[in-house]
Amino acid sequence: EKINGLVRRISLQRSHNNSITSDQSSNQGDKENREKLVQQEIEKRTTILSNFANRIFAILIQSVDQIPFGLRWICSEVVRFGKRNSTDQSANVIYLISNVIFSRYITPAICTPDSFGIVEHDCSPQQRRNLVIIAKVLQNFSNNKLFGEREFYMTPMNKFITAHSHELLGFYNSIVDVETLEEHMSMKLGSFVVPEILPIVETHIIHIKLNELITLHSLCSSLYQSLPNVTLSSSISSPSISYPE
User: Fold this and answer.
1) Contact 147/23 with Cβ under 8 angstroms?
2) Are 228 and 237 in contact (CB under 8 A)?
3) Which of 24, 52, 44 has its CA nearest to residue 126?
4) Rounded distance, CA 184 to CA 108, Å?
């Protein structure tokens, strides 16, 4: 919600003077003065862009617990498989989850807030470009990748990437620090879970759907008929069964 509010405020910027990527140029003074003005403008816009990126990242760090368990579990599995299959022992496979968290989950909502219901209006081309530039910074930052000659105009943002690289690593480690699927399922009883995943609980309550109950009875009947001279012990307590409404 905090990120949604921040993206909403960015997209609502109307004045070209506040635009992160406006195309104004100064024709005043000689070449030296123009270069000085350009440098000052670059520093000003770099500061604005860094502040926006830093605020979004700070919100993400504070919101790790709000990331859905399924997404965090997928990230932990990506890291586990990456460590098992990586041929380069020096590679930090934790950055593999950037494609899951940022490319598929965060930057699309930043680039197109109108498509995700964050804003009610359609973004103008200038507003869209502002958001894309912010998303571009976060995307490179998520991969701990500095801007190079291909995007030379973005190189001033390399200071932001290097300054927060340690915090990014801690953020990723917090995401993958999640319980296993078996532990998670044991805390939240599903509609029907096999005994290897669901440990025995004191109440002996099983939540089961009607069609699953019919299938279970059919399998028990088939097994019982295939085994002659089988008697059921009366000492076995039957678990209580509750049906979901």
Assistant:
1) no
2) no
3) 24
4) 29
pLDDT higher than threshold 80 for residue 196: no
Phi then psi for residue 191, to 5 deg, are -70, -35
Q: Phi/psi of residue 207, each to 5°?
A: -90, 120
CB 142 within 8 A of CB 119: no
What count of Cα atoms within 13 Å lies in the side-chain half-sphere of residue 50? Answer: 17
pTM of the predicted structure, to 2 decimals: 0.63
Which pair of tokens denotes residue 173? 């480690």
Pairing verdict, β 205-207 and 240-242: parallel
pLDDT tens by residue, 51-104: 999 999 999 999 999 998 889 998 998 888 888 887 765 567 888 888 889 988
Question: What is the average pLDDT score of the chain?
Answer: 76
Structural contact between residues 53 and 110, judged by C-beta atoms closer than 8 angstroms: no
Q: How far is CA 123 from CA 4, 6, 164, in A?
A: 14, 15, 30
